[in-house]
UniProtKB/TrEMBL annotation:
Family statement: Belongs to the 6-phosphogluconate dehydrogenase family.
Name this protein carries in UniProt: 6-phosphogluconate dehydrogenase, decarboxylating
Catalytic residues (UniProt): K185, E192
Assembly description: Homodimer.
Organism: Microbacterium saccharophilum
Family annotation (SMART domains): 6PGD
Record function comment: Catalyzes the oxidative decarboxylation of 6-phosphogluconate to ribulose 5-phosphate and CO(2), with concomitant reduction of NADP to NADPH.
Gene name, Swiss-Prot/TrEMBL: gndA
Residues that bind substrate: N105, S131, G132, G133, H188, N189, Y193, K263, R290, R448, H454
């Protein structure tokens, strides 16, 4: 058996695990043990990166023996059954006080279940969301760990050493207990879906409304990236739009099949929001928009359906583009507000203490939604930690005030000219729903009471009532059957 020379280990050496192991090894004071189910990946990694001085292991027993106590191992394997298999194997060779970290994209309820089961053995289990893709894993991801306070004592310095740094601060914080880290990572991905969809809608409107080529629209995005929209996603949008296809000479975006894929974390965000009763409509529209795009057979048979009477005709391209920019910014504020709302609701439901301002801060670097704008969110929660709706913070009120006319013009223009803008439209509808003094929910309550005696409350007195619809239609006091 090898001697215990490593302070951290990585199990699973596909693209994410090998990059994370290299990142760990590059930081002062770390010696990294590595293990993969099939030996070839371990051999390849160790041979390709002698500078990392990895400690390779070829069985779980060897892996455990090569780690100093408390043993700390990060699992980076295919989420699901693979994660369970590795946890089973590690709990067989680890001891109470050791720490198992799952850095994969696990569903937070799985993490809650695993944490409970592993805790019973005396071993600590930490579900940690890791964002930033393969490059982030290598150079510095944004890390969202859950788990116990005890494990954070050992894990904190290690994760701080490998995380991205934004404005001098490492992009990692102890999010909360058990599944809190994976919950926050899930919502991060949901926001990412919304942000990408909004950018795609902005591109589509400019492409259809002006004579600009993708390369010229790339310039628009590059310009936007110098202002309040500055973010990684805007930056890479410009890169993608500027790319020419080598085979055809066409803009690459024109030869890519228009059917968006998804790995499921957006759907989890929406399913969870539905369970929690949180209206994340912008995120949901983004998930559904990808889903619609991926039904070519339905799109083919629908192509000749009637549409708008007139195509989009823009007289002043610059003014139109500025309207699109403002509509994008306002809709983006809504998407983030909804995402943070879901985190707050999740924290309440699962008894986590989550500092929303700290979450905004750790998303400023390393992750896909990294953006300047997150500083404003962090400021908003620092000023008012229990802010009920993020978009009511003064900075966002100001931005939404500036965007009002443009946002409404763009949504109306899209509808009038038959251009789908589901995320723009639903964000505006959410916004107007929130600020409405009276909602037609009153009518819905009346309907529910009519067909199901579901009862209602009145605006002018307390208690609960039912109208005897099938009788003489008088109102009686009733038990609340909401
Ligand atoms: N790719 C990304 O951008 C990204 C970003 C964030 C998070 N993640 C998450 O990070 C994790 C790793 O992602 P990845 O793309 O590097 O790899 P992956 O393709 O998701 O998984 C491949 C790895 O899992 C191992 N594995 C699968 N089943 C196993 C089992 N039953 N027992 C032991 N090992 C098993 C494989 O071992 P073998 O070599 O033996 O097959 C291989 O090392 C995933 O949870 C993923 O969702 C990925």
């Amino acid at each position: 058996m090898p001697e215990a020379s490593a302070n951290i280990g990585v199990v699973g050496l596909a693209v994410m695990g090998s990059n994370l192991a290299r990142n760990l090894a590059s930081r002062e004071g770390n010696t990294v043990a590595v293990f993969n189910r099939s030996r070839s990946k371990t051999d390849e990694l160790v041979a390709a990166h002698p500078e990392a001085e990895f400690v390779p292991a070829f069985s779980y027993e060897e892996f455990a023996a090569s780690l100093q106590k408390p043993r700390t191992a990060i699992i980076m394997v295919k989420a699901g059954a693979g994660t369970d298999a590795v946890i089973d194997a590690l709990t067989g060779v680890f001891e109470p006080g050791d720490i198992i970290v799952d850095g994969g994209n696990a569903l937070f309820t799985d993490t809650i279940r695993r944490e409970k089961a592993v805790r019973a053995t005396g071993i600590n289990f930490v579900g940690a969301g890791i964002s930033g893709g393969e490059e982030g894993a290598l150079t510095g991801p944004s890390i969202m760990p859950g788990g116990s306070d005890e494990s954070w004592v050992t894990l904190g310095p290690i994760l701080r050493s490998i995380a991205a740094v934004a404005e001098g601060e490492p992009c990692v914080t102890h999010v909360g207990h058990d599944g809190a880290g994976h919950f926050v990572k899930m919502v991060h991905n949901g926001i990412e879906y919304a942000d990408m969809q909004l950018i795609a809608e902005a591109y589509d409107l400019i492409r259809r409304g002006t004579s600009k080529t993708p390369a010229e629209i790339a310039d628009v995005f590059a310009e936007w990236n110098r202002g309040e929209l500055e973010s990684y996603l805007i930056e890479i949008t410009a890169e993608v739009l500027r790319q020419t296809d080598a085979a055809t000479g066409l803009p690459l975006v024109d030869v890519i099949l228009d059917q968006a894929g998804a790995k499921g974390t957006g759907a989890w965000t929406v399913q969870t929001a539905l369970n929690l009763g949180v209206p994340v409509s912008g995120i949901a529209e983004a998930v559904f928009a990808r889903s619609l795009s991926s039904h070519p057979e339905q799109r083919a048979v629908s192509r000749d359906l009637p549409g708008a009477e007139e195509d989009l005709e823009v007289e002043d391209a610059d003014a139109f583009i500025e309207d699109v920019r403002l509509a994008l910014y306002a809709s983006k504020i809504v998407a983030y507000s909804q995402g943070f709302d879901e985190i707050r609701a999740g924290a309440a439901a699962y008894d986590w203490t989550i500092d929303l301002g700290a979450i905004a801060k750790i998303w400023r670097g390393g992750c896909i939604i990294r953006a300047q704008f997150l500083n404003r969110i962090s400021d908003a929660y620092q000023t008012t930690p229990d802010l009920p709706v993020l978009l009511t913070a003064p900075y966002f009120v100001d931005a939404l005030t500036r965007a009002q006319g443009a946002w409404r013009r763009i949504v109306a223009t899209a509808a009038a000219s038959g251009i789908p803008a589901p995320a723009f439209s639903s964000s505006l509808a959410y916004y107007d729903g929130l600020r409405a003094e009276r909602l037609p929910a009153a009518l819905i309550q009346g309907q529910r009471d009519f067909f199901g005696a579901h009862t209602y409350q009145r605006t002018d007195k307390p208690r609960t009532f039912h109208t005897q619809w099938s009788g003489d239609r008088t109102e009686v006091e009733a038990e609340d059957t909401h």
